[in-house]
Design goal:
Layout: E1 4-8, H1 12-23, E2 27-31, E3 43-46, E4 49-52, H2 61-70, E5 81-83, E6 88-91, E7 97-100, H3 104-114, H4 118-140, H5 154-162, H6 169-173, H7 180-187, H8 206-214, E8 217-219, H9 224-236, E9 240-242, E10 247-253, E11 256-262, E12 266-268, E13 271-274, H10 278-285, H11 295-300, E14 306-314, E15 324-327, H12 332-340, E16 351-354, E17 369-377, H13 385-403, E18 411-417, H14 419-426, E19 458-460, H15 471-488
This protein binds flavin-adenine dinucleotide (FAD).
Residues 8-14, 31-34, 39-41, 54-57, 245-247, 275-276, 280, 307, 309, 374, 426-427, 433-435, 462-463, 469-471, 474 line the site of flavin-adenine dinucleotide (FAD).
Length: 489
């Protein structure tokens, strides 16, 4: 008889773990509390618009391709990718925009116009970043992080030392560049890791390699097309998805989970993979005696930020917007401090606007624009309608001012999303959006372990464990946990 695996949560990590286990002969059932798959990458439709609810940046296409290749498929069997050019635009103020070209020669030229000699510096920087990306992706991110011994081969140790693990990204980047705009452009990818450049190992300049060399892509139809493709593939491998199943309780016997119980049903299990937020599963569902960590441990973690989001349908086409638009017209450090050091709603925030309808007419009615506005914010804050509305007005006024157009009167659909929704929809600790920050103290074996130390058949996956937050890492996390299960059983 095939072993029964129950996977909790149909986010990227859960689907990836489920598909990998099914491919190896497990009988896999995914229990998902929401009525559709994708977790933070769900989508919804309203008034003819289709909104991606979470991720909007498709980076590291190689990771997706490798994932599909594992099952003899290609990403192109499920969705059509388009490389964006410009990759994105950074706005430093009205009439002060930097469109980042996809082609490297054009980027070198742009750097040179800002800082003499910086194109050569970029070349050197990218050479190092390429090495980090290759070693990082081949040797580090697929490590389960269960023991230091995983990193003990002399070759790997040498590689790790060459990868600037103990230098901050902030320091590293200043060895190459001086111009403020270049520094901001180069530090932006670090924000994806949920931490500030000062606390992020320079190892993560591999993110710049991903940005500049591998490019920014978009799956036509929206990011949720990836989820649809992954679910189709999972079902082809024999995975069963059951929605509206909120896992509430485990029946534990002899230090093993025998049964996973939802609000309505019970499921027998030989092995259980927790793809829901780690904190929720172990602090709210597991009885105290079976927890890996204490409440204090979780309180002391550096969570990646939460987000205040607005999904907007606009009944006209907008000018001065590309697909991805970063509004860096304010100083980042005060906002960063209000996220990490002294958590509070920001005084003068930075924000991001995605306009996928610039690339993809299918996500908005003809002649309309689909906007997604995101303001990063500390997790665990009070979240009220009044606060959301206050920031909506701030962001919209800045957007109108910088792009020089009237937008407010043209909004025909508006929905906000923040801490309360992350908690309600995903059981997110403190309403976090992106999981656990990738700081040095929360890297590899220092992340919450993918294996329970108290329950023999319980594993964890997703953005709160290895390798970290983001869609590609979550995909990898599912593969890593499946490989560990195969090893252990
Ligand atoms: C606003 C936003 C923007 C982002 N932008 C990007 C981006 O541009 N690019 C990028 O790469 N990444 C981005 N990310 C990060 C990326 O989306 C996440 O890292 C990734 O989707 C996390 O996947 P996961 O499987 O770990 O978790 P989730 O997607 O949260 O999946 C967990 C699943 O478990 C379910 N669940 C929870 N509790 C239970 C329970 N008790 N029983 C059953 N099911 C349960 C949840 O409903 C959910 O479906 C963004 C995230 C957000 C929120």
């Amino acid at each position: 008889m095939n072993k029964k695996a129950i996977v909790i949560g149909a986010g990227f990590a859960g689907i990836s773990a489920a598909t990998t286990l099914a491919n190896k002969g497990y009988q896999v059932t995914v229990l998902e509390k929401n009525e559709t798959p994708g977790g933070r990458a769900r989508a919804f439709s309203a008034e003819g618009f289709t909104f991606d609810m979470g991720p909007s940046w498709y980076w590291m296409p190689d990771v997706f391709e490798q994932y599909f290749n594992t099952f003899g498929k290609s990403a192109s069997d499920y969705y059509t990718l388009r490389r964006l050019d410009p990759s994105y635009t950074i706005s430093f103020g009205k009439n002060d925009n930097l469109a980042i070209p996809a082609a490297l020669p054009a980027l070198f030229q742009l750097f040179e116009t800002l800082e003499k000699g910086s194109s050569k510096a970029l070349e050197n920087f990218l050479e190092q970043a390429a090495y980090k990306y290759q070693v990082g992706m081949r040797q580090l991110v697929y490590k389960p992080g269960r023991s230091l011994l995983e990193f003990s081969s002399p070759g790997l140790l040498l590689d790790v030392l060459r990868m600037d693990v103990f230098v901050s990204f902030h320091k590293h980047i200043r060895k190459f560049f001086r111009h403020k705009k270049i520094l901001q452009l180069m530090e932006f990818p670090i924000l994806f890791l949920g931490a500030v450049p000062q606390n992020t190992p320079a190892l993560y300049s591999l993110m710049n390699y991903a940005d500049i060399k591998l490019g920014t892509w978009y799956p036509m139809g929206g990011m949720h097309e990836i989820v649809k493709g992954m679910v189709r593939l999972a079902e082809d491998q024999g995975v069963t998805f059951i929605y509206n199943q909120n896992v509430k309780h485990f029946r534990i016997l002899d230090d093993k989970i025998q049964q996973v119980n939802t609000q309505t049903d019970s499921f027998e299990a030989d092995v259980v993979v927790g793809g829901a937020d780690y904190h929720h599963l172990e602090q709210q569902i597991l009885p105290p005696a079976y927890r890996n960590y204490s409440a204090k441990y979780w309180e002391e973690r550096t969570m990646a930020p939460s987000s205040l989001l607005f999904y907007l349908g606009i009944n006209k086409k907008l000018k001065e917007l590309t697909h991805h638009n970063l509004f860096f017209d304010r100083d980042f450090m005060p906002h960063a401090k209000e996220i990490y050091e002294n958590p509070q709603w920001p005084t003068d925030p930075l924000f991001y606007v995605s306009a996928p309808s610039v690339t993809d007419p299918s996500v908005a009615p003809e002649g309309c624009e689909n906007l997604f506005m995101l303001m990063p914010v500390a997790p665990g804050l009070e979240d009220t309608e009044e606060i959301r509305e206050k920031y909506f007005n701030i962001l919209l006024e800045r957007l109108e001012h910088i792009t020089g157009q009237e937008i407010r009167q043209h909004i025909i659909f508006k929905k906000s999303y923040a801490h309360r929704n992350f908690e309600q929809d995903y059981n997110a600790f403190k309403g976090n959006a992106y999981g656990l920050a990738n700081t040095l103290k929360q890297t590899a074996i220092l992340k919450p372990s993918i294996k329970s130390s108290k329950i023999k058949n319980l594993y964890f996956t997703g953005q709160l464990t290895v390798p970290g937050p983001g869609v590609p890492p979550s995909l990898i996390s599912g593969q890593v946990v499946a490989a560990e299960i195969m090893k252990d059983f």
